[in-house]
Amino acid sequence: MSRQQGVLARWAEFLPVTAKTPRLTLGEGDTPLVSAPALARAIGCDELWLKCEGMNPTGSFKDRGMVVAMAKAIEAGARVAVCASTGNTSASAAAYCAAAGIGCRVVVPEGKVALGKLAQAIVHGARIVVLRGNFDAALQAVRVLAERTPIALVNSVNPFRLEGQKTAAFEVIEALGRVPHGLALPVGNAGNISAYWKGFTEHAAREEQAGRARTTPVIYGVQAAGAAPFLSGAPVAHPETIATAIRIGNPASWDLAIRAQRESGGLFASATDAEILSAQRRLASEAGVFCEPASAAPIAGLLKLAAQTPGRFRGQTLVAVLTGHGLKDPQTAIADAPPLPEPIENDFAALEKALA
Ligand code: AN7
Q1: Residue 198: what pLDDT?
Q2: Is the CB of 86 under 6 A from ligand 1?
Q3: Per residue in 235-273, pLDDT tens?
Q4: What pLDDT was estimated at residue 4?
Q5: Protein residue whose Cα sits closest to atom 8 of ligand 1
Q6: Which residue(s) pair with 47 in the sheet?
Q7: Rounded Cα gap, residues 45 and 56, in angstroms
Q8: Angle 62-75/88-100 helices, nearest 10 degrees?
């Protein structure tokens, strides 16, 4: 028995696919929704669910949109794809280009890409350009390149990326059996918040059409304090944060993200690097889920909002989107950890003493 896997097979009826679109897949989507009762108590909500997007084939949510963007690019005849990236988009693009048999070019900011993500781009065979400048400069550069050459641009300014990523909203509703009261996620270039809102509003429209209630969640977009243009209301020239995935000062999907926040009755929040790292450790030690720093931002944001307004989330079901796997950035995870202890002799007494 075979079941068709992946975003394109599973959600075809809601995606812009034709008979000519190749059914590319690495098994993306269908990620677990994990309950986190200890953190729910800390936040003061009824239920907290973690959408573990690090379980996608390349370890981040990017695979959902990448598979659609790549399939449509191949359908249109592309032989090479390009992206600018803080790391995860390049890892995903490199893997899907390899699977599809086309060339991959990635442009990354100098010195700020997590180790696991670089390893992925390298092993999947992407040609890597390191740009003197940040992500915003890299995105500008590849946009110009894509205008002047036949190379397909697969950043989230490519609308097929958002189409694929919206399927995460469908999965959340399906797994819960209802629409959550609130959904929190990290915001960098603002593609994902726009895609979730698209998914939730499309679902709501279908419910309305079927004569049922139109329900959407409140969206909480969380940024790193050093890279928080949605809190200042203007682009940030020199974004800085330990959460390198969201070290972005000039989000491409600005208007769509503002619309998601306004229409959902939500808000943007920010978390400092210390709050992000603390939330990352709490997710690992209290929920058993290891995510990368950027992915801990929504938990840091919810904890902060709950502390500012006690009782704010009482009785609510909340979802936090953990966008990328902790193994993407092992160096940040162990940077402040004490060194490993000296080796012991292999005898029982020494072992007993060491573990006492
Ligand atoms: C783990 O890979 O922008 O707001 O170039 O890797 O849709 O940009 C990554 C972004 C959140 C922010 N969490 O999502 C890239 C890139 C993780 C991420 C975001 C990213 P968007």
Answers
A1: 98
A2: yes
A3: 999 999 999 999 999 999 999 999 999 999 999 999 999
A4: 75
A5: 189
A6: 317
A7: 27
A8: 40
Q: Is 91 in the pocket of ligand 1 (CB under 6 A)?
A: no
Give the separation between CA 27 and CA 63, rounded to whole angstroms: 9
Q: CA dihedral defined by 268, 303, 53, 335, rounded to 10 degrees?
A: 110
**pLDDT tens, residue by residue, 210-227:** 999 999 999 999 999 999
Written as six digits, the tokens of 228 are 């928080």
Q: Give me the chain's average pLDDT, please.
A: 97
The pLDDT of residue 269 is 98
pLDDT digits (tens, 9 = 90+) for 36-76: 999 999 999 999 999 999 999 999 999 999 999 999 999 99
Indicate if ligand 1 lies below 6 Å from the C-beta of 192.
Answer: yes
Burial 197-231 (b: 16+ CB within 10 A, else e): bbbbbebbeebeeeeeeeebbbbbbbbbbbbbbbb
Q: Which residue of 55, 64, 246, 329 sits with most ligand 1 atoms within 8 Å of its CB, as the best mutation to test the pocket?
A: 246
Residue 159 CA to ligand 1 centre (angstroms): 16
If you average pLDDT over residues 142-162, what whole number do you get? Answer: 97
| Polymer length of the chain | 356
| Cα–ligand 1 centroid distance for 88 (angstroms) | 7
- Tokens encoding 354: 């060491």
Domain covering 62-158 in this structure, CATH number: 3.40.50.1100
Tell me if 187 CB under 6 Å of ligand 1.
yes
Paired residues of 152 in beta bridges: 81
User: For tokens 């390191």, what's the residue?
Assistant: 130
The whole-number pLDDT of residue 1 equals: 44
Instruction: Specify the amino acid at residue 184.
Output: A
Segment 204-213 shows an average pLDDT of 97
Domains 7-56+161-335 and 62-158 fall in the same CATH topology = yes
**What number does the ligand 1 atom closest to the CA of 324 have?**
1
Tokens standing for 234? 């203007």
pTM: 0.97
Give the type of residue at 5.
Q
pLDDT above 90: percentage of residues in the chain? 99
Architecture of domain 7-56+161-335: 3-Layer(aba) Sandwich (3.40)
Q: Kindly list the domain boundaries of the chain, sorted by start residue.
A: 7-56+161-335, 62-158
